[in-house]
Amino acid sequence: MKTFAAIDVGSYELELKIFELSEKKKVRKIDSIRHGLDLGSQTHSTGKLSDDKVNELCHVLLDFKKIMNSYGVDGYKAYGTSAIREMQNRLIVLDQIEARCGIHIDVPSNSEQRFLNLKAVAVRETEFDNIIENSTAVVDIGGAGLQISLFEKGTLVSTQNLPIGILRIRERLRKFNSTMSQYEEIVEGLASSIVDTFSKLYTKDRHIDNIILVDEYINVAYRTTHGEEISNSCSTEQFYQVAEMIRTLSPGQVAKKVQINEDSIELLYISVALLKCITKALNVQTLWIPGATLCDGIAYEYAEKNRLITYTHNFEEDILSSAKNISKRYMGSKKRGETLEKIAVTVFDTIKKVHGMGKREKLLLRIASLLHDCGRYISIMNPQQAGYEIIMATEIIGLSHKEREIVAEVVKNSYSEHLYYEEIRQEAELESEDCLTVAKLAAILRLATGLDRTHKEKFKELRARLDKDTLYLGVNGDFDVAFEKNLFENRAGFFREVYRIEPVIKQK
Prior knowledge:
Hypothetical protein af1432; single chain; Nucleotidyltransferase, domain 5; 22 helices; six-stranded mixed β-sheet; 14 strands; alpha/beta
């Protein structure tokens, strides 16, 4: 059994959760501490934190460290969200915090953070896989943005980050000098056009059956007004009753009723108004409120890496499903993408002792294969650069910014002459080892595109065998592959350079 601490340095609150992790009891929360601290308002508006905010942040983290020591934790992980992510002097502040508190804070990308929240929901909500068999929207309300992830038939269909986080909305409301009784009407005015645009683009004629909510305040209000043992699901009508109760009471009465600090009531009002706007736009009848937070996601990720838990839901397939839907959005050929993916994976697996890469790099190669042709939607003459720009401008949930850059560079370099380290460094924030990964993956993908240059899937059922310095690529069939052999030779040169392996086509 291990004792683990998870710290969420959020935009408007710091949270510490202590967990017991074991193969038998899985992940069990044993303590939770929250401290309200508005970091987001400053960083979202000025890009920096004042000395007072940094000092208070360090003071709270030192208190958290004492609590962690009292539990004798075996490990901890601290994540900073959008308030830290958007700081101009982030590296300086994080270095100061580590020097003063002895706590290292990692800063995941937005897509990584939301992916952790999805994992937390999937593990906490035992019916998750059954729920997402129907059309379901996971609504993740944050300080800087709102993430909506659509599931259907058990897989992720699309995910989008909308610029209507509760701290951003609060800043707008304060400029209007509005009272809390006016919040619902004004929030609906601010958010409805964005939510309606999302609905038109991504839900179309699809009826959304459920919303799974990831939120700090509505969860607390729901459970304190209904009791901790209440079901995780409720109808939208039941939610509207809670919303009406919150709207009619004074801030002090609400704080006492739902057991939330009075300073946070304003954010609760905004969260409620925002969720009402979303439920109406998507015409949803059922809400699921599992009470998952980022700290749960951090703990589950740690437990998974230490092989203390396993997920029944396949999250890697969600990432690939997201890539397939991006390809579909830019008119990419489904068959072509799947063929390239299959060829590339076959080559990757066959030469794994040579390239030394792992499961994560294999996932990046699969994503690059699926997105290889998306740039043709913008430019047939220059698909490599257009593809690069599309991938860099599109969030792929579960990937870090660096991983997205690697995928974009692999796609770009699978078309034209390879850009070497110094050239890649001029346009991307990649280190030398990342550029080497780009070269290795691009060499495989370029080989795959050479085998399927005619888009006729002749090599879809490819067999590969490595014999010393020769890679035999076998295909069965009485079709003519002379054209492919000529094109393949042009694509194989970089593969030879990277791996010192001679690829040879064999046909039976």
